[in-house]
């Protein structure tokens, strides 16, 4: 398996002194978050199409862990690309690959890279996903899927600009044969554009220069949501630990 993030990022995350503590502190808010797998579809994941070994493996992991995320979050919202993009006639499923949405999950179609944007509409016109997020007001959007440096990245950035908190599950994202990059590329663009510190990745993201950049944006009246980059196993472990803590309190 080719991991969708570099070994440098993995080590930095595991060695970061505040990573697990910071996420443990947020565990109580997970039950009000929404799990958002993006474009888990045959066009992007199947190796006979645009997919590769990494996308196929990641799709299988999303399918395996989806029930667990359903149990710790408010809902799962499967975002899929317009069915015309992959030639499938199955509008209801969006040509899903390796996954089977649960009965209480919601399916939301998008027609742009970002799930927050709407094609052939004036800039700022809310998409179906934007309407959903506005209506449900989740504590965070727990994002995974494809392609990391295209639809996932654009959705993450637009979510932050709209003031939403984002939890990006690095191990549940990948790129197909037509997209290139990794988590480091996403964070570099995020830092240049928004100047916000991302939890548990690299110490230089909290540099004085970055904080000043973010302060200038805040002074201009722009409020950005907070980005946390982590792994699925840590999220699930924190949620499990919080459940045990709540059970203990109830004894």
Describe what this molecule looks like in 3D.
- The chain is α/β, with parallel strands linked by helices and 251 residues long.
- It is 42% helix and 14% strand.
- The protein has nine helices and six strands.
- A six-stranded parallel β-sheet has the order 3-2-1-4-5-6, with helices on both faces.
- Helix 6 packs parallel to helix 7.
- The longest helix is centred in the first third of the chain and has 20 residues, at 53-72.
- Residues 1-21, 196-222 and 245-251 have low confidence and may be disordered.
Distance between the termini: 44 Å
What spatial form do the alpha-carbon principal axes imply? globular
Number of domains: 1
Strand residues, percent: 5-15%
CATH architecture, by name, is 3-Layer(aba) Sandwich
The number of helical segments is 9
* CATH fold-level label: Rossmann fold
The CATH homologous superfamily is named: Isochorismatase-like
Query: H/E order of the elements?
Result: HHEHHEEHEHEHHEH
């Amino acid at each position: 398996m080719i991991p969708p993030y570099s070994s440098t990022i993995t080590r930095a995350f595991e060695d970061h002194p505040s990573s697990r503590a910071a996420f443990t502190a947020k565990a109580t808010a997970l039950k009000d978050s929404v799990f958002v797998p993006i474009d888990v579809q045959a066009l992007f994941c199947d190796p006979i199409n645009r997919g590769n070994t990494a996308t196929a493996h990641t799709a299988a992991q999303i399918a395996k862990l989806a029930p667990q995320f359903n149990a710790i979050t408010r809902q799962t919202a499967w975002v899929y690309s317009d069915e015309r993009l992959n030639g499938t006639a199955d509008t209801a499923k969006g040509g899903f690959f390796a996954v089977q949405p649960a009965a209480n999950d919601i399916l939301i179609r998008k027609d742009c890279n970002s799930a927050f944007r709407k094609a052939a509409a004036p800039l700022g016109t809310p998409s179906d996903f934007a309407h959903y997020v506005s209506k449900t007001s989740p504590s965070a959007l727990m994002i995974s899927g494809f392609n990391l440096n295209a639809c996932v990245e654009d959705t993450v950035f637009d979510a932050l600009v709209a003031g939403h908190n984002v939890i990006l599950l690095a191990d549940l994202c990948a790129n197909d044969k037509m997209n290139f990059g990794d988590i480091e590329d996403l964070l570099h663009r995020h830092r240049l554009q928004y100047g916000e510190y991302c939890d548990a990745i690299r110490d230089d993201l909290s540099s004085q220069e970055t904080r000043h950049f973010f302060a200038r944006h805040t002074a201009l009246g722009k409020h950005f949501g907070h980005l946390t980059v982590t792994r699925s196993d840590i999220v699930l472990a924190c949620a499990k630990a919080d459940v045990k803590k709540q059970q203990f309190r109830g004894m």
